[in-house]
Amino acid sequence: MLLLLGLCLALLLCAGSQEEERSWSDTSEQVGLRVPRQLRLLQRLKTKPLMTEFSVKSTIISRYAFTTVSCRMLNRASEDQEVEFQMQIPAAAFITNFTMLIGDQVYQGEIIGREKKNGDRVKEKRNQTTENNGEKGTEMFRASLVIPSKDKAVLLLSYEELLQRRLGKYEHIVSVRPQQLVGRLTVDVSILEKSGIASLEVLPLHNSRQKGSGRGEDDSGPPPSTVINQNETFAKVIFKPSVVQQAKIAQNGILGDFIIRYDVNREQSIGDIQVLDGYFVHYFAPKGLPPLPKNVVFVLDSSASMVGTKLRQ
Ligand SMILES: *[C@@H]1O[C@H](CO)[C@@H](O)[C@H](O)[C@H]1NC(C)=O
Ligand SMILES: *[C@@H]1O[C@H](CO)[C@@H](O)[C@H](O)[C@H]1NC(C)=O
Ligand SMILES: *[C@@H]1O[C@H](CO)[C@@H](O)[C@H](O)[C@H]1NC(C)=O
């Protein structure tokens, strides 16, 4: 689904490759190493709208993830300011709601089918991203808005995604790239799987281009401040880094992908069937089947473009 918004706002959904490195906050380059300085600098540079809250809440029920991103911004400058909100969402996800509250005005996004808007072009771009990023295809959601002087804006973006099982795991990825340090930053994921959660792990923050990503002491575990609570069928993961913890990971607010991987129990070989509103889902992934024989075909390109070292190799 693609979303269009008229009114005074320009809204683009385009399949950008991961352009998050292009920091639009001038503060990132000038910041010293220590946090108090950073904060003082931020106070002085208060012309840039300040993000006071960035919170992502996901609820996964039977491998189906509902996610809402809510972002609060404050323009403390004495003139109106334009800001761009951007969020990377999984390419397989579809947007179900986008709402902006600017001052006391509510702007409700209109959702239209993806193919209605330059279907071909969008599809083409989509392929490219998926190819460029391998299995981690993402799309960039962007919205630009004008926040009146001394006023606030709240952006709410909801999307849904059916998680795919790959290499024996379901993976839920949340992009945490608010582009600045945020006073209240939370990622809150609840997972409910009736057949039972077999294994659950939170990976270190992942940034495809390593720039700005943390090289902390323990690079293998969950990022700092992560709390995991789980029992047989329910898990709650909360990532809530303080400003200091965020600054240790990345000064520019580009923390990376927060990744949760888990699998469910599959005791019965016939799989798991769910019925709801006249629809059913059959999860079927039998274990212990003999591997199928495979034919492997190697194709060697010996055309002119391969001449020289490539061909010798
Ligand atoms: C979209 O979200 C807004 C704010 O949460 C809510 O008021 C509105 O009803 C939602 N719209 C739809 C179509 O769900
Ligand atoms: C994109 O993928 C679709 C479906 O797999 C395919 O039909 C189309 O040709 C692809 N486009 C490009 C530019 O690769
Ligand atoms: C797991 O925890 C959730 C929330 O705390 C609770 O509702 C549920 O009953 C618990 N389930 C089991 C099997 O303990």
TrEMBL record:
Residues of the signal peptide: 1-17
Stretches the record annotates as Disordered: 208-227
Keyword annotations from UniProtKB, A to Z: Signal
The protein's name in its UniProt record: Inter-alpha-trypsin inhibitor heavy chain H5
Keyword Signal tagged: yes
Pfam hit, one: VIT
PANTHER family the UniProt entry points to: INTER-ALPHA-TRYPSIN INHIBITOR HEAVY CHAIN FAMILY MEMBER, INTER-ALPHA-TRYPSIN INHIBITOR HEAVY CHAIN H5
Record bears the keyword Amino-acid biosynthesis: no
Ranges of residues in domain VIT: 35-161
Source species taxonomy: Eukaryota, Metazoa, Chordata, Craniata, Vertebrata
